[in-house]
Amino acid sequence: MITYHPDTNTLIEFAANSLSPAQSVVVATHLEACEVCQQRLVELECVGGALFENSKPCDVDPSVFDTVLAKLDEVEEAPAANDANASDLAWTVKQVRQGNLDGLNWRKVTKTLRVADLGAIDGAAEFSLYHIAEGGSIPLHNHSGMETTLVLQGGFSDESGTYHAGDFITREAGEEHSPTAIAGGDCICLAVLESPLRFTRWHHRLLSPLLQLRAG
C-alpha cells in the first residue's frame, strides 16, 4: 500500500506542466501506480488548479482519467537537457517505468550499493537509480539541495520512517538520513537530486566522488 504521496502543490504544478522534466518523470512514475493521486489530479484539473483541500468534490466523467494517464506519456517526449540526449533518455525513462532495469549501466559504490546514472536532464544535478541490497544502507548524508525519491521495488527505512514500493519521499536541503533496505528483498529507488549528496562522517567522505556521476 502506498503511504507517501506528492503534496498538492506538486500535483498542481504537474497538472500545469510547470514542474522540471526531472520532477515530472518521478511524479508521472508515481501516478502510474497510485490511484489516489490519479483521482487527486483529476480533482485538481476539475477545479482549475485550486487547492484540493479547499475545494468541493465535483462529478467527473470517467474519460477524464484517460486524459490524466495520457499526460504520463507526454513526460517521455522531451525530458532531456538537450535534443541530442532526448531520444536516449526517453528510452531509459520508459525502461525504468516498465521495470526493465537489468540492462542499465550499474556502477558499484559499496558491497551493498549500486547506482545507475540515467543521464542529463533539466532540473537535476543527478538523475539516478539506487539499488541497495537487502540489509544494506547508504551512509549518513545530507544535501545542499532538495532530494526526491520514489521507491520502485522493495523498501527502505531511515530516521524519519519506513517506505515501500510506490512511496514518494522528499527531503529538503540540510536534512540528514541513512536509508537502509528493509528485510524481504533489495530496494531500488528513482532519485532526483538538486545537488550531490554529502556524507557527514569523515570515514565515508571518500565515497562522495563516486556518487558525483557527472562531476567535472
Can you tell me about this structure?
By secondary structure, this protein is an alpha+beta fold. It has two domains: about 10-100, no CATH class; about 105-210, Jelly Rolls (Sandwich). Helices cover about 30% and strands about 25% of the residues. It has helices at about 10-15, 20-35, 35-45, 65-75, 85-100, 210; strands spanning about 105-110, 115, 125-130, 140-145, 145-155, 155-160, 160-165, 170, 180, 185-195, 195-200. The chain is globular.
Q: How are the SSEs placed, and which strands pair?
A:
Elements lengths: L7 H8 L5 H13 L1 H12 L17 H11 L8 H16 L7 E5 L2 E5 L8 E7 L8 E3 L3 E7 L1 E4 L2 E4 L3 E4 L8 E2 L5 E7 L3 E3 L8 H4 L5
Antiparallel strand pairs: 1-2, 2-3, 3-10, 4-11, 5-8, 5-10, 6-7, 6-9
Helix pairs in contact: 1-3, 2-3, 2-4, 3-4
- Regions with little confidence, pLDDT below 50 for 5+ residues: 49-53, 76-85, 202-210, 212-216
Total count of strands: 11
Going by CATH, the architecture of the largest domain would be Sandwich
**Helix and strand pattern:** HHHHHEEEEEEEEEEEH
What is the count of helical runs?
A: 6
- Strand line-up of the largest beta sheet: 1-2-3-10-5-8
Overall geometric form: globular
Radius of gyration equals: 17 Å
Strand content: 15-25%
Distance between the termini: 41 Å
Please describe the biggest sheet, giving its number of strands, its sense, and whether it closes into a barrel.
6 strands, antiparallel
CATH topology grouping of the largest domain: Jelly Rolls
In CATH, the homologous superfamily of the largest domain goes by the name: Jelly Rolls
User: What is the C-level CATH assignment of the largest domain?
Assistant: Mainly Beta
Number of domains: 2
Q: What do the pLDDT scores average to?
A: 78
SS-derived structural category: alpha+beta
Fraction of residues in helices? Answer: 25-40%
